[in-house]
Design brief:
The complex is a heterodimer of chains A (414) and B (222). Chain A has 414 residues and is of the alpha/beta class. Chain A has helices at residues 17-23, 25-28, 39-59, 72-87, 101-112, 130-136, 159-175, 198-201, 250-288, 315-324, 344-348, 353-357, 370-389, 397-406, and strands at residues 5-6, 66-69, 92-96, 116-120, 141-145, 182-186, 205-209, 220-224, 292-294, 305-310, 327-328, 330-331, 359-363, 412-413. The chains are: A alpha/beta (414), B alpha+beta (222).
Chain lengths: 414, 222
């Protein structure tokens, strides 16, 4: 009964021991402030230079195009608020309905300060369409921010396609005397598994962070394509090319670089392993439990993401039973959110509330084995059966399907 | 309520195994969740009850169904069975409510109608603050089943109505008015409209009215 099966890696990952080891000297041995001039500080300074180079290699960019921040949320805030504030006039922002709250709430903050905002819908698998991006762009559009892969349902967005389009459009816009549109992607969930080559993606800004890729928490990166104008959101001593003041988190930066480097080396093999496990696990769950619906796309999803809704039961009750068998997962049910609203991502798919309330997300990691998943499969049908027996609900699958089909999918202009 | 706040101090519901932190849910809640009292596993087998109530829906995240066996002479709840769709708090709260309503030879109906969500929460040893709303449906489900008994046993004057909500602003019709119309025998939209004029000048509210008619019909006559 003392199992410990962590299947919540999209929430955060443990720190890779190699990362911990790389960070080690920078706590008590090489602790100097990189801005100071003595030898002790040079070691810290050098560590940051090396880290920047390592990360630049993965992103296929120049080291000086990388800004270190205090995490994914901060990078996103800097990208969105920083670029909009730098415009010094009311502008238009485009984002999608399924973004992380860091993006949605930053955009909404700017909207409340007088900037226009368009929120793009997604299809039932969670994809944003290039057509909608095209439709939403206005003359005063300054920023498009679309996530690379979704944290809840794992759907991988067509970032390259959108990037190529915006780049091409920008040439026409400059000729017409319009502002260039910046394209930012939140790649926090994607960085450990997908190719984040900024040249291939055609993005102006990309956000990644340490805590989802077996790196340290509290460190983020923002890639800035040359010519991207930002106003800092944190003022102070002018570190990070004045874009992010504050004494650098040297151990964190070293850990971030090490983690990204490891992910870069190992992802191909690890992705292959996880995709096999993922597809098998999804197939088993859908096969053994009736009235279950896969959320997200069957194939174009993160290798570690499994998100399934089990109808007639509520997610939190499932999590309590899973905890009893030593399994840690998460749910999109309202009951576990502080807002008491069910998952905005699953609702955006066009799913009725029932589907969001019954959704369970398992996100695998490097340590996840087939045996772990077997343990879940051995117990899960019984948990669902127990809760269904106790439930008076009997949701009609045909009506659920109808809700998906009938869902209104239009651009929300705010 | 201080008890509630204290046990809800940690805003975490599930704590990893091997951790020293306490489960944010009390031991009593956990006990009622994993070993629910008076739960009905197969609704088809239920017989001989004289009160039935249902509130909520899977869409709103909580749904409860309550069966009552009421002793007419004593005016007491002798047995209460239930089913719940909902989170850990909702399931535990319904279980605890069924204990409260039937312990010590059964609760007098007038007392049972007075049960509030906070009484259930107290007996559970408190709920995490943001979970309190999950227990509010239990007492409503019980009241709905008692009302159903009142109707069936010819005690319409004892029916307790829940708080009023305006459904059609133009016609100034509340959910209470629709409830009343159903109680007076209206069985469909047309009949309810004859009595209340709801939705006639404001058709956008009709889907909600139809839902309420279904809800009240099931509540009292289901």
């Amino acid at each position: 009964m003392n199992k410990h099966i962590y299947l919540d890696h999209a929430s955060t990952t443990p720190t890779d021991p190699r990362v911990v080891k790389a960070m080690e000297p920078y706590w008590n041995e090489k602790y100097g402030n990189p801005s100071s001039l003595y030898r002790l500080s040079l070691a810290s300074k050098q560590a940051i230079i090396d880290s920047r180079e390592k990360i630049a290699k993965v992103l296929n960019c120049q080291p000086d195009e990388i800004i270190f921040t205090g995490g994914g949320t901060e990078s996103i805030n800097l990208a969105i608020k920083g670029s909009v504030w730098a415009a010094k006039k009311p502008v238009h922002i485009i984002t999608s309905k399924v973004e992380h709250p860091a993006v949605l709430n930053s955009c909404q903050r700017l909207n409340s300060q007088g900037h226009k905002l368009s929120i793009l819908p997604v299809d039932r698998y969670g994809f944003v369409s290039l057509e909608d991006v095209k439709k939403a762009i206005k003359d005063d559009t300054l920023l498009v921010s679309i996530m690379m892969a979704n944290n809840e349902i794992g759907t991988i967005q067509p970032i390259q396609e959108i990037g190529v389009y915006i780049e091409k459009l920008n040439k026409e816009r400059v000729e017409k005397g319009l502002d260039k549109i910046y394209f930012h992607t939140d790649a926090c969930q994607a960085a450990g598994a997908l190719d984040i080559d900024v040249k291939k993606l055609h993005v102006d800004m990309i956000t990644i962070n340490g805590s989802k890729i077996y790196g340290p928490k509290g460190v983020g990166v923002l890639y800035l394509k040359p010519g991207t104008k930002l106003i800092p959101i944190i003022d102070g001593g002018g570190q990070e090319k004045k874009m992010r003041s504050g004494t650098e988190n040297v151990p964190g930066i070293v850990g971030m670089a090490e983690a990204l480097d490891i992910a870069y080396q190992e992802k191909e093999k690890e992705n292959k392993r996880q995709i096999e496990l993922r597809d098998w696990f999804i197939e088993q769950l859908l096969k053994t439990i009736d009235k279950s619906i896969l959320n997200g796309d069957p194939k174009k999803r993160l290798p570690n993401n499994i998100n399934i809704s089990f109808l007639d039961i509520e997610g939190e009750a499932v999590l309590l039973y899973l905890d009893e068998i030593g399994v840690m997962a998460s749910t999109g049910s309202a009951c576990t959110s502080s807002s008491l609203e069910p998952s905005h991502v699953i609702r955006a798919l066009g799913a009725p509330y029932e589907v969001a309330h019954g959704s369970i997300r398992f996100t695998m990691g490097k340590s996840t084995t087939k045996k772990d998943l077997q343990h879940v499969l051995e117990n899960f049908p019984e948990i669902v059966k127990k809760l269904r027996q106790a439930s008076p609900a009997n949701v009609d699958m045909a009506e659920v399907e109808k809700t998906f089909v009938d869902a209104e999918r239009k651009i929300l202009d705010l | 309520m201080s008890q509630t706040k204290k046990s809800a101090a940690a805003d975490i519901d599930i704590v990893p195994k091997g951790s020293d932190e306490a489960w944010a849910y009390s031991k009593i809640i956990k006990d009622h969740f994993f070993k629910p009292r008076n739960l009905i596993l197969d609704a088809k087998d239920v017989k001989g009850y004289n009160g039935l109530g249902m509130v909520g829906s899977p869409a709103c995240g909580d749904m409860m169904k309550v069966w009552l066996w009421i002793d007419e002479k004593e005016d007491k709840i002798k047995e209460m069975k239930w089913q719940t769709f909902g989170c850990g708090s909702a399931i535990s709260a319904t279980s605890m409510l069924s204990v409260m309503a039937t312990e010590n030879g059964g609760m007098k109906l007038d007392d049972a109608l007075e049960i509030k969500a906070q009484h259930i929460t107290e007996r559970l040893g408190g709920l995490p603050v943001r979970k309190i709303h999950c227990s509010v449906l239990g007492d409503k489900a019980l009241r709905s089943a008692i009302n159903n008994y009142f109707i069936k046993s010819g005690q319409k004057d004892r029916v307790i109505k829940e708080q009023v909500r305006i459904i059609d602003k133009q016609a100034k019709v509340t959910d209470h008015d629709i409830e009343e119309a159903v109680l007076e025998g209206a069985q469909n939209l047309e009949e309810v409209q004859k009595k209340t004029k709801v939705g006639i000048g404001n058709p956008s509210v009709i889907p909600e009215v139809e839902q309420l008619i279904r809800f009240y019909t099931e509540k009292y006559f289901g």
